Amino acid sequence: MVKLESIITQRVNIHLELSSVQILPHCLSADPDSAIHSSHTEHRGNPEVHHTLCTGAPCKDSLMACVVSLYRPLSLLAPVGVRRAIVCRMSLDMRARDVFATAIEAVQPDIVVRRGLERTGDTLLVNGRSFTLKNNLYLVGFGKAVLGMAAEAERIVGDHLVRGVISVPHGIQETLRQHGKGQMMLKDGSHITVMEGAKHNLPDADAQRAAECIKELVSTLTENDTLLVLISGGGSALLPAPVPPISLQEKQDVTRRLAGAGATIQELNSVRRALSILKGGGLAHFAHPAQVVALVLSDVIGDPLDLIASGPTVWTEVWPEEIWSVLERYGLSSSLPVSVKEVLGRSAPRWEESGEQSDRATHVLNAVIGSNSIALECAGRRARELGFRPVVLSPGVCGDVQSVSRLYGLLARFACSRDEPPPELPAEILKLGPETGVESWDLCRAMQVLGEGRGEGWGATCLLAGGEPTVQLTGKGRGGRNQELALRVGLELGDMELPPKGPLFLSGGTDGQDGPTEAAGAVTDAGLGKEARAQGLDPDGFLVNNDSFTFFSRLSGGQRLLLPGLTGTNVMDVHMLLIPPIPIVVSGR
Ligand SMILES: Nc1ncnc2c1ncn2[C@@H]1O[C@H](COP(=O)(O)OP(=O)(O)OP(=O)(O)O)[C@@H](O)[C@H]1O
Ligand SMILES: O=C(O)[C@H](O)CO
């Protein structure tokens, strides 16, 4: 058994002859901060790979040469040409932030709309279905990312757009302008009216006015018209239309009390659907007989169309017993306003039948054009370019941050075991999985990949996950679930005595805002606790007070905070566990 480091020392004089080899990232095991950045191109019809060696340690061309030569006998080479090798420096932390930025970039409103809405001449293509444009297109939208989506949609459809109305968060135009996000603004002379409302993400009179304008617009459409509906997270609060006689205030009270009592988004939105005339398919109903094409940027785990923004284009039956059981579960059933009780007691459908039931399926097309899964997939590709094997664990992480942080800690320990991990470790991981919304199936696959990595001398791995865990708010501090999760994972890694330059964890909200703070999240590793205590900060004290933002702001001048600014999109959170290469042992050499 010979250590790789010693082979490197012995072979430093081998020259770079990079004609037909592929450099593999795990070759650089001696340096935990190293990676190969590879980009694939073609040269005169032949595939080529350009490699950039990224390393935190001083490095020479000869190191590259020896890496290449070392791996030739291990049959891990691919017949591709290497035309260029550049040496640069990029730490693990920088690479984590780069991968996170790629995840956000992949779900930018303009990018998702371009991906989902194709135009060839006068034909619009969505999800393989085509629609003829003849100056008959109308547009409505509601949600936090809808301004940027609408700007791009208008660029694509051009003069075919007759008129549009969108309901977007209060102050968003000014904020995006300040953040230099000009591409998300509508052009001068746009045919779309922007209405801002729902301050603090709560339905208000402004949002209700926007909902009325949207209802008015869609109600005038004929069978010759096409209605483009843009939907993203936050859409429920931006499209309030309580079923009479429920007042806006009454509806707001019910949803606020439910959310405050810990109702899930599934429970919350099933109640919202029952109390609204536009949710649960109402918007599509009023737009009938026009053709409805809804483009949806998902912010709910599993991308359920009937729940995202409470499904205004997805016809959903309301079952009063189901609504009552949710209200009872959270102790609201006895204190409901009379108007809400009256609406829930009605046996008649929410809208008068208009004979459209049979053609509902063909008249409405709902397409998810952006989601957490897409962000993770693109992040994975970037991670690979930066020298990691990407493994997507799950886009559906939920559960309490405490359990989630424990799971990531255990996975890091599993990944970093030099020999076979103790048998109880996989069992503990699999036991914790269901509590955090991660399927055992995903965990088994991730552990298998990590195990194979250990056996084959791979090491640099990027474990990616997404979702929306929850925080039990007991304190009065400033923070968010991402910062709290990152803080907890950092402490877990420290408790497991993993090396400070070992695994690194990042958690960030893709909207760029974690809870009521200006940070999106934070980056941590096993050195976090020690670093904090050396600066007189007690991490546990900050955790008890849910004060993770104050903690990270004070720690090392805020260096561990993720501060991308408002991103203009939202597909929940991204979690990333970067496992640097474990020094490998090459047998028989
Ligand atoms: N001090 C705090 N520490 C930890 N988490 C907090 C704190 N204050 C609020 N939160 C959490 O932040 C979340 C609300 O923040 P945010 O506005 O980012 O909501 P969101 O669910 O991400 O909304 P959206 O889906 O619209 O982005 C809640 O999960 C809440 O528990
Ligand atoms: O608007 C909403 O209902 C939530 O953001 C979920 O989509």
Task: Write up what this structure looks like.
By secondary structure, the protein is of the alpha/beta class. It has 3 domains: 2-90, no CATH class; 95-103 and 373-586, MOFRL domain (glycerate kinase, domain 1), CATH 3.40.1480.10; 108-370, Glycerate kinase, MOFRL-like N-terminal domain (Rossmann fold). Helices cover 38% and strands 20% of the residues. It is built from 22 helices and 20 strands. A 6-stranded parallel beta sheet has the order 10-9-8-11-12-13, sandwiched between helices. A 6-stranded mixed beta sheet has the order 14-15-19-16-17-18, with helices on both faces. The longest helix has 17 residues, at 440-456. The chain is globular and about 70 Å long. Residues 1-39, 46-88 and 584-589 have low confidence and may be disordered. Adenosine-5'-triphosphate (ATP) binds at residues 201, 233-234, 299, 470-471, 473, 477-481, 484, 509, 511, 513-516, 546, 548, 570. Adenosine-5'-triphosphate is lined by residues 201, 233-234, 299, 470-471, 473, 477-481, 484, 509, 511, 513-516, 546, 548, 570. Residues 96-344 form the MOFRL-associated domain. InterPro entries: GK-like_C_sf (IPR037035), GK_N_sf (IPR038614), MOFRL (IPR007835), MOFRL_assoc_dom (IPR025286), MOFRL_protein (IPR039760). It is an enzyme of class 2 (transferase). It comes from Hucho hucho. Residues 462-573 form the MOFRL domain.
